[in-house]
């Protein structure tokens, strides 16, 4: 087992134990993607019995709000625990959930003095059109980002970093502490990118899961697309 494989195994076990300790259950499957400067923890089969009732009644926001508040309150504890396995300064913790698929994603960027080089794009992906669509979707939901960075962590994982996307009214809401309401409102608008645009034809694969989260105080957003490659 290589050192990176060992680190991923340890991180997966830590994340499962952390979630079991604080949420009462561990995911059925945990996959760790370690591609500096990013750490991703993909959770599958993770839905608590009490949450299942609200999901069946289509009251998803009640579950999302509770999870968001839990993650927010536990963020520093989890980051402190992860630092025992990751020999890099970790800057923040982002999280999003697909309750209907019982999946979730925790994504942690490393602190960096400057943005790294973009990782190679898959040959089959239309770079310019995809970039235009992401910017168009940002304009539709907030405004054109001041900076947009694309990171292909593998040919099945695309992470999009957007900096400077909030409009003035949103910045004022953040100053007034209206954080969770903003997150709940923006989440479904962002996730409609797959239905409003012919995204999968550009990505050479079906979108298995899409996750998005923000640090509203820093005016930064991350979107992660997990793909199933076409046969």
UniProtKB/TrEMBL annotation:
Source organism, top-level taxon: Bacteria
Pfam family, one: MpsC
Domain named Na+-translocating membrane potential-generating system MpsC: residues: 6-105
Protein name: Na-translocating system protein MpsC family protein
Lineage, top ranks: Bacteria, Bacillati, Bacillota, Bacilli, Bacillales
């Amino acid at each position: 087992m290589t050192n990176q494989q060992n680190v991923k195994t340890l991180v997966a076990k830590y994340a499962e134990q952390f979630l079991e300790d604080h949420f009462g259950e561990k995911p059925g499957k945990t996959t760790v993607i370690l591609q500096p400067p990013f750490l991703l923890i993909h959770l599958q089969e993770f839905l608590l019995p009490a949450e299942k009732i609200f999901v069946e009644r289509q009251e998803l926001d009640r579950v999302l709000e509770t999870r968001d508040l839990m993650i927010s309150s536990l963020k520093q504890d989890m980051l402190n625990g992860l630092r025992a396995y990751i020999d890099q300064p970790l800057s923040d913790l982002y999280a999003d959930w697909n309750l209907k698929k019982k999946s979730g994603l925790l994504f942690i960027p490393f602190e960096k003095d400057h943005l790294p080089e973009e990782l190679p794009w898959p040959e089959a992906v239309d770079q310019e059109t995809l970039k235009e669509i992401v910017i168009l979707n940002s304009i539709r939901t907030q405004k054109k980002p001041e900076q947009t960075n694309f990171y292909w962590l593998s040919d099945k994982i695309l992470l999009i970093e957007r900096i400077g996307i909030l409009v003035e009214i949103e910045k004022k809401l953040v100053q007034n502490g209206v954080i969770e309401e903003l997150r709940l409102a923006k989440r479904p608008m962002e996730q409609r990118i797959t239905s409003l645009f012919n995204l999968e034809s550009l990505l050479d694969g079906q979108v298995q899961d899409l996750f998005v989260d923000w640090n509203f105080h820093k005016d930064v957003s991350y979107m992660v697309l997990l793909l199933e490659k076409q046969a």
